[in-house]
Amino acid sequence: MPSAMIRSIIPLGVALLGATSVLADPPSCALDKKCPKEAPCCSQYGQCGVGAFCLGGCDPRMSFSLDSCAPAPVCKDKTYKMDSLDRYRDISKYLGDPNEADWVGQGEPAIYNGNTLLTMPPKSVGTVLATTTYMWYGNVKAKVKTSRGKGVVTAFILFSDVKDEIDFEWVGVDLNQVQTNYYFQGIPNYDNSGNISVSSNTFDDWHEYEIQWTPDEIKWLVDGQVGRTKKKSETWNATSNQWAFPQTPARVQISLWPGGLASNAKGTIDWAGGEIDWNGGDIKTYGYYFATFGEITVQCYNAQSPPGTNKKTSYYYNNIAATNDTVVDSDKKTVLKSFGATGTNMDYDDGTATGAGASASVHSIPGGGQPAGQVPGGGTSAGGSSGGGSGAGSAAGCQTTGFSQSCNQPGGSGGPRSVDRTLGASAFAIVVGIAGLLFL
Ligand SMILES: *[C@@H]1O[C@H](CO)[C@@H](O)[C@H](O)[C@H]1NC(C)=O
Ligand SMILES: *[C@@H]1O[C@H](CO)[C@@H](O)[C@H](O)[C@H]1NC(C)=O
Ligand SMILES: *[C@@H]1O[C@H](CO)[C@@H](O)[C@H](O)[C@H]1NC(C)=O
Protein backbone atom coordinates (compact mmCIF):
# COMPACT_ATOMS: atom_id res chain seq x y z
CA MET A 1 0.00 0.00 0.00
CA PRO A 2 1.17 3.50 -0.64
CA SER A 3 2.31 5.54 2.26
CA ALA A 4 0.82 8.67 3.67
CA MET A 5 2.99 10.86 1.56
CA ILE A 6 2.82 9.11 -1.75
CA ARG A 7 -0.87 9.62 -1.82
CA SER A 8 -0.33 13.30 -2.07
CA ILE A 9 1.08 12.98 -5.57
CA ILE A 10 -2.26 12.81 -7.23
CA PRO A 11 -2.55 16.44 -8.19
CA LEU A 12 -6.14 17.30 -7.71
CA GLY A 13 -7.36 20.70 -6.74
CA VAL A 14 -9.03 19.56 -3.61
CA ALA A 15 -11.14 22.37 -2.28
CA LEU A 16 -10.60 22.56 1.39
CA LEU A 17 -10.81 26.06 2.63
CA GLY A 18 -13.41 27.13 5.08
CA ALA A 19 -15.67 30.08 4.58
CA THR A 20 -13.21 32.34 6.34
CA SER A 21 -10.65 32.30 3.58
CA VAL A 22 -10.07 35.58 1.82
CA LEU A 23 -8.18 33.94 -1.05
CA ALA A 24 -9.35 31.58 -3.73
CA ASP A 25 -8.14 28.01 -3.53
CA PRO A 26 -4.48 27.80 -4.54
CA PRO A 27 -3.92 26.53 -8.07
CA SER A 28 -3.02 22.86 -8.26
CA CYS A 29 0.17 21.55 -9.88
CA ALA A 30 1.43 18.34 -11.49
CA LEU A 31 4.16 17.14 -13.84
CA ASP A 32 2.11 18.35 -16.81
CA LYS A 33 0.75 21.42 -15.04
CA LYS A 34 3.43 23.64 -13.61
CA CYS A 35 2.65 26.47 -11.23
CA PRO A 36 2.05 29.98 -12.60
CA LYS A 37 4.67 32.70 -12.27
CA GLU A 38 2.90 34.58 -9.47
CA ALA A 39 2.56 31.44 -7.30
CA PRO A 40 5.56 29.51 -8.59
CA CYS A 41 6.18 26.84 -5.95
CA CYS A 42 4.45 23.43 -6.02
CA SER A 43 4.09 22.17 -2.45
CA GLN A 44 4.27 18.56 -1.30
CA TYR A 45 0.47 18.62 -1.40
CA GLY A 46 0.28 19.60 -5.07
CA GLN A 47 -0.72 23.22 -4.71
CA CYS A 48 0.96 26.44 -5.81
CA GLY A 49 2.09 29.34 -3.67
CA VAL A 50 5.01 31.35 -2.29
CA GLY A 51 6.84 31.36 1.06
CA ALA A 52 6.50 28.02 2.85
CA PHE A 53 5.34 26.48 -0.44
CA CYS A 54 8.93 27.00 -1.67
CA LEU A 55 10.55 25.22 1.30
CA GLY A 56 10.53 21.55 2.34
CA GLY A 57 8.50 19.43 -0.02
CA CYS A 58 8.52 21.94 -2.89
CA ASP A 59 8.74 19.87 -6.10
CA PRO A 60 10.95 21.58 -8.69
CA ARG A 61 9.54 19.43 -11.50
CA MET A 62 6.05 20.84 -10.97
CA SER A 63 7.04 24.40 -10.06
CA PHE A 64 7.19 27.36 -12.44
CA SER A 65 10.93 26.89 -12.95
CA LEU A 66 13.57 24.53 -11.58
CA ASP A 67 14.82 27.26 -9.24
CA SER A 68 11.42 28.33 -7.87
CA CYS A 69 11.92 26.08 -4.83
CA ALA A 70 14.49 27.24 -2.27
CA PRO A 71 17.64 25.08 -2.11
CA ALA A 72 17.44 22.31 0.51
CA PRO A 73 19.81 22.28 3.54
CA VAL A 74 22.41 19.48 3.29
CA CYS A 75 22.63 16.47 5.56
CA LYS A 76 23.86 16.92 9.15
CA ASP A 77 24.86 14.06 11.42
CA LYS A 78 22.70 14.44 14.48
CA THR A 79 20.94 12.68 17.32
CA TYR A 80 17.58 14.25 17.99
CA LYS A 81 16.63 13.59 21.61
CA MET A 82 12.96 14.36 20.96
CA ASP A 83 12.56 15.49 24.58
CA SER A 84 11.66 19.10 23.84
CA LEU A 85 9.81 21.19 21.26
CA ASP A 86 12.33 24.04 21.50
CA ARG A 87 13.68 23.20 18.06
CA TYR A 88 10.29 22.47 16.48
CA ARG A 89 8.49 25.10 14.40
CA ASP A 90 5.07 25.09 12.86
CA ILE A 91 5.48 25.60 9.10
CA SER A 92 3.80 28.99 9.45
CA LYS A 93 6.81 30.12 11.51
CA TYR A 94 9.75 28.72 9.56
CA LEU A 95 11.66 30.37 6.73
CA GLY A 96 14.33 27.80 5.89
CA ASP A 97 17.17 28.24 8.40
CA PRO A 98 18.11 24.81 9.79
CA ASN A 99 20.21 26.51 12.47
CA GLU A 100 16.97 27.70 14.02
CA ALA A 101 14.97 24.49 14.00
CA ASP A 102 15.51 20.75 13.65
CA TRP A 103 11.90 19.91 12.86
CA VAL A 104 9.12 21.70 11.05
CA GLY A 105 5.57 20.46 10.95
CA GLN A 106 1.84 20.73 11.25
CA GLY A 107 -0.63 19.42 13.78
CA GLU A 108 -0.13 18.90 17.50
CA PRO A 109 3.13 17.45 18.75
CA ALA A 110 3.57 17.31 22.53
CA ILE A 111 6.17 16.23 25.07
CA TYR A 112 5.46 13.47 27.56
CA ASN A 113 7.99 11.72 29.80
CA GLY A 114 10.92 13.02 27.80
CA ASN A 115 9.64 11.84 24.41
CA THR A 116 7.68 13.43 21.59
CA LEU A 117 4.06 12.48 21.10
CA LEU A 118 2.43 12.94 17.74
CA THR A 119 -1.21 13.40 18.64
CA MET A 120 -4.46 13.05 16.74
CA PRO A 121 -7.41 14.58 18.62
CA PRO A 122 -10.99 13.72 17.63
CA LYS A 123 -11.80 14.41 13.99
CA SER A 124 -8.39 15.88 13.29
CA VAL A 125 -6.00 14.81 10.56
CA GLY A 126 -3.14 14.11 12.96
CA THR A 127 0.39 15.47 13.11
CA VAL A 128 3.38 15.41 10.74
CA LEU A 129 6.98 16.48 11.48
CA ALA A 130 9.89 16.66 9.02
CA THR A 131 13.57 17.38 9.53
CA THR A 132 14.86 20.72 8.30
CA THR A 133 17.89 19.04 6.68
CA TYR A 134 17.94 16.45 3.91
CA MET A 135 19.69 13.06 3.76
CA TRP A 136 21.30 12.07 0.45
CA TYR A 137 21.69 8.42 1.40
CA GLY A 138 22.77 7.48 4.92
CA ASN A 139 21.25 5.80 7.96
CA VAL A 140 18.38 6.95 10.12
CA LYS A 141 17.02 5.12 13.15
CA ALA A 142 14.19 5.92 15.54
CA LYS A 143 12.90 4.52 18.80
CA VAL A 144 9.15 4.28 18.35
CA LYS A 145 6.04 3.20 20.21
CA THR A 146 3.27 3.24 17.63
CA SER A 147 -0.30 4.33 17.98
CA ARG A 148 -3.10 1.75 17.97
CA GLY A 149 -6.71 1.30 16.92
CA LYS A 150 -8.70 0.83 13.75
CA GLY A 151 -7.83 3.29 11.03
CA VAL A 152 -4.90 4.84 12.91
CA VAL A 153 -1.62 4.89 10.95
CA THR A 154 1.86 5.73 12.29
CA ALA A 155 4.70 6.44 9.83
CA PHE A 156 8.48 6.94 9.85
CA ILE A 157 9.71 7.66 6.33
CA LEU A 158 12.27 9.35 4.11
CA PHE A 159 10.61 11.61 1.56
CA SER A 160 12.36 13.66 -1.13
CA ASP A 161 11.06 16.79 -2.82
CA VAL A 162 10.67 14.81 -6.08
CA LYS A 163 8.82 12.09 -4.19
CA ASP A 164 11.43 9.38 -3.84
CA GLU A 165 10.37 7.63 -0.67
CA ILE A 166 11.40 4.90 1.79
CA ASP A 167 8.85 3.90 4.42
CA PHE A 168 8.09 2.21 7.67
CA GLU A 169 4.33 2.25 8.35
CA TRP A 170 2.26 0.74 11.13
CA VAL A 171 -1.46 0.09 10.93
CA GLY A 172 -3.11 0.36 14.34
CA VAL A 173 -4.85 -3.03 14.23
CA ASP A 174 -1.67 -4.88 13.40
CA LEU A 175 0.72 -4.38 16.29
CA ASN A 176 2.99 -7.33 15.58
CA GLN A 177 4.49 -6.21 12.31
CA VAL A 178 5.65 -3.18 10.39
CA GLN A 179 4.99 -2.55 6.70
CA THR A 180 7.87 -1.32 4.53
CA ASN A 181 7.77 0.29 1.12
CA TYR A 182 9.72 2.45 -1.32
CA TYR A 183 8.94 4.65 -4.33
CA PHE A 184 10.84 6.27 -7.16
CA GLN A 185 9.48 9.73 -7.97
CA GLY A 186 6.11 8.85 -6.51
CA ILE A 187 5.25 6.31 -9.20
CA PRO A 188 2.83 3.84 -7.59
CA ASN A 189 3.93 0.23 -7.65
CA TYR A 190 2.00 -2.11 -5.44
CA ASP A 191 4.73 -4.74 -5.58
CA ASN A 192 7.19 -2.60 -3.65
CA SER A 193 5.85 -3.33 -0.18
CA GLY A 194 7.00 -5.91 2.32
CA ASN A 195 6.22 -6.76 5.94
CA ILE A 196 8.60 -7.36 8.83
CA SER A 197 7.35 -9.03 11.98
CA VAL A 198 8.23 -7.39 15.28
CA SER A 199 9.07 -9.41 18.37
CA SER A 200 6.53 -7.76 20.66
CA ASN A 201 3.60 -5.35 20.56
CA THR A 202 4.58 -2.14 18.75
CA PHE A 203 2.31 0.02 20.93
CA ASP A 204 3.39 -1.20 24.36
CA ASP A 205 7.06 -1.71 23.69
CA TRP A 206 9.85 0.41 22.34
CA HIS A 207 11.50 -0.93 19.25
CA GLU A 208 14.22 0.62 17.13
CA TYR A 209 13.52 0.94 13.43
CA GLU A 210 16.31 1.81 11.01
CA ILE A 211 16.66 2.61 7.32
CA GLN A 212 20.13 2.09 5.81
CA TRP A 213 20.20 3.68 2.38
CA THR A 214 23.15 3.63 -0.04
CA PRO A 215 23.33 4.24 -3.81
CA ASP A 216 23.13 0.44 -4.20
CA GLU A 217 20.57 -0.80 -1.68
CA ILE A 218 18.04 -0.12 1.03
CA LYS A 219 17.97 -2.14 4.24
CA TRP A 220 15.12 -1.97 6.75
CA LEU A 221 16.15 -3.07 10.26
CA VAL A 222 14.12 -3.72 13.40
CA ASP A 223 16.00 -3.87 16.70
CA GLY A 224 19.29 -4.15 14.83
CA GLN A 225 18.23 -7.10 12.65
CA VAL A 226 17.89 -6.68 8.91
CA GLY A 227 14.26 -7.48 8.08
CA ARG A 228 14.32 -6.58 4.40
CA THR A 229 16.83 -5.63 1.70
CA LYS A 230 16.09 -4.07 -1.69
CA LYS A 231 18.94 -3.72 -4.18
CA LYS A 232 19.01 -1.02 -6.81
CA SER A 233 20.03 -3.69 -9.29
CA GLU A 234 16.56 -5.24 -8.90
CA THR A 235 14.73 -2.05 -9.81
CA TRP A 236 15.47 -1.41 -13.51
CA ASN A 237 12.40 -0.11 -15.37
CA ALA A 238 12.83 -0.95 -19.06
CA THR A 239 9.92 1.29 -20.07
CA SER A 240 11.36 4.45 -18.58
CA ASN A 241 15.00 3.30 -18.90
CA GLN A 242 15.66 4.20 -15.31
CA TRP A 243 16.47 2.65 -11.99
CA ALA A 244 13.21 2.94 -10.05
CA PHE A 245 15.20 3.37 -6.87
CA PRO A 246 15.11 6.26 -4.35
CA GLN A 247 18.16 8.44 -5.11
CA THR A 248 17.51 12.07 -4.19
CA PRO A 249 17.94 14.07 -0.94
CA ALA A 250 15.09 13.31 1.45
CA ARG A 251 13.72 14.64 4.69
CA VAL A 252 12.96 12.35 7.60
CA GLN A 253 9.22 12.54 8.23
CA ILE A 254 7.30 11.13 11.17
CA SER A 255 3.53 11.23 11.26
CA LEU A 256 0.26 10.01 12.71
CA TRP A 257 -2.75 10.16 10.40
CA PRO A 258 -6.30 8.81 10.05
CA GLY A 259 -6.26 6.27 7.23
CA GLY A 260 -9.62 5.11 8.48
CA LEU A 261 -11.42 8.41 8.11
CA ALA A 262 -15.02 7.59 7.20
CA SER A 263 -14.83 9.77 4.08
CA ASN A 264 -11.76 7.97 2.72
CA ALA A 265 -12.14 5.41 -0.05
CA LYS A 266 -12.89 1.87 0.98
CA GLY A 267 -9.46 0.62 -0.10
CA THR A 268 -7.73 3.04 2.25
CA ILE A 269 -10.07 2.32 5.14
CA ASP A 270 -9.67 -1.44 4.68
CA TRP A 271 -5.89 -1.16 4.53
CA ALA A 272 -5.94 0.95 7.69
CA GLY A 273 -7.94 -1.71 9.52
CA GLY A 274 -11.38 -0.12 9.37
CA GLU A 275 -13.10 3.14 10.20
CA ILE A 276 -11.51 5.13 12.97
CA ASP A 277 -13.45 5.36 16.24
CA TRP A 278 -13.42 8.95 17.43
CA ASN A 279 -15.28 8.08 20.62
CA GLY A 280 -13.32 5.07 21.75
CA GLY A 281 -9.88 3.66 22.20
CA ASP A 282 -7.25 6.11 23.36
CA ILE A 283 -9.52 9.07 22.61
CA LYS A 284 -11.68 8.08 25.56
CA THR A 285 -8.80 7.73 27.98
CA TYR A 286 -6.34 10.35 26.82
CA GLY A 287 -8.25 12.70 24.53
CA TYR A 288 -6.32 11.72 21.43
CA TYR A 289 -4.60 8.93 19.58
CA PHE A 290 -0.84 9.21 19.91
CA ALA A 291 2.43 7.73 18.70
CA THR A 292 5.59 8.15 20.79
CA PHE A 293 8.98 8.96 19.29
CA GLY A 294 12.15 8.67 21.34
CA GLU A 295 15.66 9.35 20.13
CA ILE A 296 16.15 9.65 16.35
CA THR A 297 19.65 9.45 14.87
CA VAL A 298 20.70 10.59 11.41
CA GLN A 299 24.06 9.46 10.07
CA CYS A 300 24.88 11.08 6.74
CA TYR A 301 26.35 9.03 3.89
CA ASN A 302 29.29 11.43 3.71
CA ALA A 303 30.42 10.47 0.21
CA GLN A 304 33.60 12.16 -0.99
CA SER A 305 32.15 12.79 -4.45
CA PRO A 306 28.53 12.85 -5.68
CA PRO A 307 26.12 11.25 -5.27
CA GLY A 308 25.67 11.36 -1.52
CA THR A 309 27.85 14.27 -0.46
CA ASN A 310 27.08 16.91 2.15
CA LYS A 311 30.14 19.12 1.83
CA LYS A 312 28.46 22.47 1.20
CA THR A 313 25.27 24.27 2.23
CA SER A 314 22.39 23.09 0.13
CA TYR A 315 21.11 20.75 -2.55
CA TYR A 316 19.34 21.84 -5.71
CA TYR A 317 18.38 20.12 -8.98
CA ASN A 318 19.95 21.23 -12.27
CA ASN A 319 17.70 19.09 -14.46
CA ILE A 320 14.06 18.13 -14.42
CA ALA A 321 14.97 14.44 -14.64
CA ALA A 322 15.58 14.70 -10.88
CA THR A 323 17.84 11.65 -10.79
CA ASN A 324 21.01 11.12 -8.71
CA ASP A 325 23.21 12.88 -11.27
CA THR A 326 21.09 16.06 -11.34
CA VAL A 327 21.52 16.92 -7.66
CA VAL A 328 24.07 19.67 -6.93
CA ASP A 329 25.69 20.07 -3.50
CA SER A 330 26.13 23.85 -3.54
CA ASP A 331 26.80 27.04 -1.61
CA LYS A 332 23.40 28.52 -2.37
CA LYS A 333 21.58 29.84 0.67
CA THR A 334 18.36 28.30 1.96
CA VAL A 335 16.62 31.07 3.89
CA LEU A 336 13.72 33.19 2.66
CA LYS A 337 13.36 36.73 3.93
CA SER A 338 9.58 36.59 4.25
CA PHE A 339 6.53 34.47 3.49
CA GLY A 340 6.21 36.36 0.22
CA ALA A 341 9.65 35.26 -1.02
CA THR A 342 10.45 32.42 -3.47
CA GLY A 343 13.55 30.57 -4.69
CA THR A 344 14.10 33.17 -7.41
CA ASN A 345 13.40 36.12 -5.11
CA MET A 346 14.69 34.98 -1.74
CA ASP A 347 15.26 38.45 -0.33
CA TYR A 348 11.80 39.75 -1.13
CA ASP A 349 10.47 41.23 2.09
CA ASP A 350 6.77 41.91 2.39
CA GLY A 351 6.96 42.26 6.15
CA THR A 352 5.58 38.80 6.83
CA ALA A 353 8.69 37.19 8.29
CA THR A 354 7.02 36.62 11.62
CA GLY A 355 3.37 36.44 10.80
CA ALA A 356 2.49 33.80 8.25
CA GLY A 357 1.90 35.92 5.23
CA ALA A 358 -0.62 38.31 6.65
CA SER A 359 -0.49 40.64 3.69
CA ALA A 360 0.23 38.14 0.96
CA SER A 361 -2.07 38.14 -2.03
CA VAL A 362 -1.12 34.57 -2.88
CA HIS A 363 -0.97 31.56 -0.62
CA SER A 364 2.16 31.32 1.48
CA ILE A 365 1.46 28.43 3.85
CA PRO A 366 0.61 25.10 2.21
CA GLY A 367 -2.81 23.90 3.09
CA GLY A 368 -4.83 26.99 2.66
CA GLY A 369 -2.67 29.95 3.46
CA GLN A 370 -5.28 31.69 5.49
CA PRO A 371 -3.62 34.80 6.79
CA ALA A 372 -2.88 34.52 10.46
CA GLY A 373 -5.46 36.17 12.58
CA GLN A 374 -8.24 35.74 10.07
CA VAL A 375 -9.17 32.29 11.18
CA PRO A 376 -11.56 32.64 14.09
CA GLY A 377 -10.97 29.77 16.42
CA GLY A 378 -9.91 26.37 15.28
CA GLY A 379 -11.43 23.77 13.16
CA THR A 380 -13.11 25.69 10.40
CA SER A 381 -11.41 24.11 7.49
CA ALA A 382 -9.94 20.71 8.08
CA GLY A 383 -13.14 18.91 7.35
CA GLY A 384 -13.35 20.39 3.88
CA SER A 385 -11.61 17.74 1.92
CA SER A 386 -11.39 15.00 4.42
CA GLY A 387 -15.03 15.25 5.25
CA GLY A 388 -13.88 14.15 8.63
CA GLY A 389 -15.89 16.65 10.57
CA SER A 390 -15.08 19.87 12.21
CA GLY A 391 -11.36 19.91 11.77
CA ALA A 392 -8.40 19.42 13.98
CA GLY A 393 -9.54 22.01 16.41
CA SER A 394 -10.96 20.06 19.28
CA ALA A 395 -8.47 20.47 22.05
CA ALA A 396 -9.99 17.69 24.07
CA GLY A 397 -6.52 16.54 25.00
CA CYS A 398 -6.01 19.31 27.44
CA GLN A 399 -9.12 18.63 29.45
CA THR A 400 -9.26 14.91 29.50
CA THR A 401 -5.80 13.59 28.99
CA GLY A 402 -3.47 12.10 31.48
CA PHE A 403 -0.74 13.92 29.58
CA SER A 404 -1.90 17.24 30.90
CA GLN A 405 1.54 18.74 31.15
CA SER A 406 1.71 18.67 27.41
CA CYS A 407 -1.14 21.09 26.90
CA ASN A 408 1.02 24.16 26.80
CA GLN A 409 3.83 22.60 24.90
CA PRO A 410 3.01 22.74 21.22
CA GLY A 411 4.65 25.68 19.58
CA GLY A 412 6.38 26.41 22.83
CA SER A 413 5.18 29.94 23.33
CA GLY A 414 1.52 29.70 24.21
CA GLY A 415 0.74 31.54 20.99
CA PRO A 416 -2.44 31.31 18.97
CA ARG A 417 -2.57 27.58 18.65
CA SER A 418 -5.97 27.54 17.10
CA VAL A 419 -4.57 29.24 14.05
CA ASP A 420 -1.65 26.86 13.80
CA ARG A 421 -3.91 23.93 14.21
CA THR A 422 -6.23 25.03 11.51
CA LEU A 423 -3.48 25.72 9.06
CA GLY A 424 -1.78 22.48 9.85
CA ALA A 425 -4.88 20.45 9.75
CA SER A 426 -6.01 21.78 6.44
CA ALA A 427 -2.69 21.05 4.80
CA PHE A 428 -2.62 17.56 6.09
CA ALA A 429 -6.24 17.11 5.11
CA ILE A 430 -5.17 17.34 1.50
CA VAL A 431 -3.09 14.25 1.96
CA VAL A 432 -5.95 12.44 3.54
CA GLY A 433 -8.47 13.60 1.00
CA ILE A 434 -6.27 12.53 -1.84
CA ALA A 435 -5.52 9.27 -0.12
CA GLY A 436 -9.17 8.49 -0.48
CA LEU A 437 -9.21 9.35 -4.16
CA LEU A 438 -6.27 7.15 -5.00
CA PHE A 439 -8.21 4.13 -3.86
CA LEU A 440 -11.46 4.89 -5.63
C1 LIG B 1 1.43 -7.15 4.91
O1 LIG B 1 0.48 -7.33 5.92
C2 LIG B 1 -0.81 -6.84 5.59
C3 LIG B 1 -1.68 -6.94 6.81
O2 LIG B 1 -1.64 -8.22 7.37
C4 LIG B 1 -1.36 -7.62 4.42
O3 LIG B 1 -2.62 -7.14 4.06
C5 LIG B 1 -0.40 -7.47 3.25
O4 LIG B 1 -0.83 -8.23 2.16
C6 LIG B 1 1.02 -7.87 3.64
N1 LIG B 1 1.92 -7.50 2.57
C7 LIG B 1 2.77 -8.36 2.03
C8 LIG B 1 3.61 -7.86 0.93
O5 LIG B 1 2.86 -9.51 2.43
C1 LIG C 1 8.00 2.01 -15.36
O1 LIG C 1 7.95 3.39 -15.67
C2 LIG C 1 6.77 3.81 -16.30
C3 LIG C 1 6.96 5.26 -16.69
O2 LIG C 1 7.24 6.04 -15.59
C4 LIG C 1 5.61 3.60 -15.33
O3 LIG C 1 4.40 4.01 -15.93
C5 LIG C 1 5.53 2.14 -14.95
O4 LIG C 1 4.52 1.96 -13.97
C6 LIG C 1 6.85 1.66 -14.40
N1 LIG C 1 6.81 0.23 -14.20
C7 LIG C 1 6.92 -0.32 -13.01
C8 LIG C 1 6.86 -1.81 -12.96
O5 LIG C 1 7.10 0.34 -12.02
C1 LIG D 1 23.58 7.57 -10.75
O1 LIG D 1 23.13 6.25 -10.79
C2 LIG D 1 23.56 5.58 -11.95
C3 LIG D 1 22.84 4.27 -12.00
O2 LIG D 1 23.08 3.54 -10.84
C4 LIG D 1 25.06 5.41 -11.87
O3 LIG D 1 25.54 4.68 -12.99
C5 LIG D 1 25.66 6.78 -11.86
O4 LIG D 1 27.05 6.67 -11.69
C6 LIG D 1 25.07 7.64 -10.77
N1 LIG D 1 25.43 9.00 -11.01
C7 LIG D 1 26.24 9.62 -10.22
C8 LIG D 1 26.54 11.05 -10.51
O5 LIG D 1 26.72 9.07 -9.28
Automatic annotation (TrEMBL):
Extent of the signal sequence: 1-24
Q: Which PROSITE patterns match?
A: GH16_2
GO CC annotations? fungal-type cell wall
- The UniProt regions of compositional bias labelled Gly residues, in chain numbering, are 366-394
Which domain of life does the UniProt lineage start with? Eukaryota
Q: Which residue range or ranges hold the GH16 domain?
A: 92-280
Q: Which residues form a coiled coil?
A: none
The protein's UniProt keywords, in alphabetical order, are: Glycosidase, Hydrolase, Signal
Q: Which family does it belong to?
A: Belongs to the glycosyl hydrolase 16 family. CRH1 subfamily.
Q: Name one Pfam family in it.
A: Glyco_hydro_16
In the record, biological process GO terms are: carbohydrate metabolic process; fungal-type cell wall organization
Where are the residues of the annotated region Disordered?
A: 357-396
Instruction: Say if the entry is tagged with keyword Signal.
Output: yes
Q: Which GO terms describe its molecular function?
A: glycosyltransferase activity; hydrolase activity, hydrolyzing O-glycosyl compounds
Q: Keyword Hydrolase, does the record have it? A: yes
InterPro entries referenced in this protein's UniProt entry, alphabetically: Beta-glucanase-like (IPR000757), ConA-like_dom_sf (IPR013320), Glycosyl_Hydrlase_16 (IPR050546)
Protein's name in the database? Concanavalin A-like lectin/glucanase domain-containing protein
UniProt cross-references to Gene3D superfamilies, sorted A to Z: 2.60.120.200
Provide the function of this protein. Dual chitinase/transglycosylase that plays a role in cell wall architecture. Chitinase and transglycosylase activities are coupled. Required for the polysaccharide cross-linking at the septa and the cell wall. More specifically, transfers chitin to 1,6-beta-glucan in the cell wall.
